[in-house]
Design goal:
Helix content: 55-70%
Largest sheet: 2 strands, antiparallel
Strand content: under 5%
Shape: globular
Distance between the termini: 19 Å
Number of helices: 10
Strand order of the largest sheet: 1-2
Radius of gyration: 20 Å
Structural class: mainly alpha
Amino acid sequence: MFNDDIFHPEARDGRGAMFGEAISFVRRNLSFVCVVVAANCALVAFDDYSGGNKSNSAQFFVSLSFGFFIQNAILNGDGKVSNLTSGMRGFGGYIWKNLLIILVVIGIGIGAPVAFGAASLSRNAFLLLCLAVIAMILPLLLALVGTWPIAGIAGSKSGLSAAFSRGKHGLVPTFLRLFAGLFLPFIGALILMTAATSMSYTADRIFSDGKLNLIALAILVICQWASTFGLYYVSIVLARKLLSSEAPRPPNGGRQGNAVAATSVSEIFE
């Protein structure tokens, strides 16, 4: 059974510490996670049943709101998502700033291949190339300015330039962690669906001939759990980055009185 030893000071700085924090945070907010997973599964099932893609924007909004409530609980020191109608400071700014980042990523993801002549490729090859560019640009941009949308949650008025200054420090490890949280669940889902298809299971339709496809439903639930945990991990990485950069740092990097050299999400939970 997992325990909270990862919150001890000696375990704070590694990737394992943040992964452990994500697991512990899920345990503290299990009912909230279940509601989010169920909501996303219901939206996907509705699309499958109706034969459209009308719920994509709803799923995106659910994911953004989910990230907001996670980071709100972390930055305000609650450690638990509760009373969703309160503590909404910075929600509007959080949504539109993230939307702006996503639009920039999509613009680069489509514009860069077109600029280099990829438009002459087949439709599938072009889409695959665009997805590959987006998979690199999204975690990179979040690593650089991902603390910009969440600064308002903590009551900070720092802008985009301050977020960029924070993002430059530790860029590579932050990029790798964000890439893992955002895309490893997606890659795992593809592998799982490919494996199911190779065993002659229909994995891409929740409803088949008017009947519920239990195999596809099980795969959907597993994939939604994985992507939700990935979002937890990404949220914790960005929140820790903001907290550590906003913490007071005494002269010579040492301790002065009761001040500490850095602050992390781990200290909030102690």
